[in-house]
Amino acid sequence: MGRGVPELVLELNGSTWTLDPSRTYTLGRDPQGDLTIDDARVSWRHATISWNGRSWSIEDHGSTNGTYVQGRRVQQVEIGAGTVLHLGNATDGPRVSLGAPAAGAAGVQAAAAQPAPAQQP
Questions:
Q1: Most buried of the four, 60, 75, 83, 107, by CB within 10 Å?
Q2: Around 112, how many Cα atoms within 13 Å sit in the side-chain half-sphere?
Q3: Residue 59 bridge partners (DSSP)
Q4: Backbone angles phi, psi at 112, to 5 degrees
């Protein structure tokens, strides 16, 4: 039962973010959002990514040009490591890729994952 929430790493325009399951991330052109995407095809508050207690998901907030997973327009869909999203256009809209944290990456649960120091005899 002690399985932790799988962290998710989001990559956009060469920058990466390790997502924290305790909060929601907004994507869009709004400079006050968490992930600002400066592209005319992206809506001001385009979509949000959040942990729903069971899985990560993205929800499109009625954007003009849509959110796409594997070329298919989605309203709300579960996402995870390996998911690639396009915002505003199915093929060449801004690309958001999701992955697992690299081994040894600093994260919220990194301390718990470290082995206990060996006891000296």
A1: 60
A2: 7
A3: 48, 76
A4: -70, -25
